[in-house]
Amino acid sequence: MYTIDKKHFKKFVENLMNSYAVMGPVKNVSFSSFEKISSAQDIDLDFCNTPILIKDLFLPRNEVIFKFKEKNKLLEFEIPAEKEKRLLLGVRPCDMQALLLLDKVYSENPEDEYFLTKRKNTIIVGMACLNPDPYCFCTSFGIGPSTSTGFDLFLTDIGDKYFVEVLTDKGKEILNFGLFKKSTKDDEKLKLEISEKLKNKITKTANTKDIEKKLEKMFNDPYWSELSQKCVSCSLCSFLCPTCYCFDVVDESSLFGNYGERIRCWDSCQRKEFQRMALDHNPRAEKTNRVKQRFYHKFDYFAKKYGVLACTGCGRCLRHCPVDLSIPDVINEVQKK
């Protein structure tokens, strides 16, 4: 383990920018979002989590799958090449854990080369949350503000320096700048103390123990109908969720169809049109079924398939839901049934 003095951090970032497209949290008017930086001064590390997801950097809201054009009465195709070496700086644990869940989905056969190429070309440097949001409930899923799993490098603020955990070979590659020192026992003790204090700052909880079994027994419970009356079907929860991964595919072409693009774009199971099929058949036309689908997918179906719940407790859906439809409240209510 290592440390880096905060006075050297700017130099560290500048060195990284010589070899990578560095993306970090940049302060906008009222929120931060991950953007490509042009200066180390651009980075804003004083945030909990951003409303603009890092998922967007691996599974863009709108992504060109291929371009096509007609030539000599035949169609030619062009697949966009992803070659840029990127480094994400300041990623929070809940977002990293969400990315690991997406890895499970997009690594299945057939593998999604668009997603996986971006993952391969990206180094991720995480940072512990010093000021968790009141809406955060990450500890309900076995993680916390200092969880370093999945990162290449992980930083914890311990005062006038950062404690640095090197977790992968990719992480080792970016230490060769002469700015790091071997950590001392005092550094390690302080880091552990801070990590424990941060975990205790998470006060909102959801009782997820055996939640899949509980849900199995109440699929037809009237509770879902009562809950859905509150929902306005805006889909905000899905579009702000770092673990939601549904998408639609559309073709956009010229007037005569001789050139165009195939585009993958985010979609949501909370939209009435999401499962509408031929002849206008829709198994989830009723809002009750769509609201129920959201919870069953995250806390039952995904768990059965991949062995883990599809939520990391980032709290975005709680903070921004216009009708205060809270995952922890729903899960805790289900447990009482």
For the record, the count of structural domains works out to 2
pLDDT averaged over residues:
93
Task: Report strand %.
Answer: 15-25%
- Low-confidence runs: none
Q: Which overall shape is indicated by the principal axes computed on the Cα atoms? A: globular
Q: Count the helices. How many? A: 11
CA-atom Rg in angstroms: 22 Å
Strand line-up of the largest beta sheet: 3-2-6-7-8-9-1-10
The run of helices and strands is EHEEEEEHHEEEHEHHHHEEHHH
Measured between the Cα atoms of the first and last residue, the distance is 47 Å
Number of strands: 12
- Helical proportion, percent range: 25-40%
What can you see in these coordinates?
The chain has helices at 9-17, 93-106, 113-120, 169-173, 185-200, 211-216, 223-228, 236-239, 287-306, 316-320, 327-336, and strands spanning 2-5, 21-27, 32-36, 62-71, 74-78, 86-91, 122-127, 153-157, 161-166, 181-182, 247-253, 259-266. It has 337 residues and is α+β, with helices and mostly antiparallel strands. The chain folds into two domains: 2-59 and 81-200, no CATH class; 211-245 and 269-336, no CATH class. A hairpin with a 2-residue loop joins strand 4 and strand 5 (74-78). The model has no long low-confidence stretch (mean pLDDT 93).
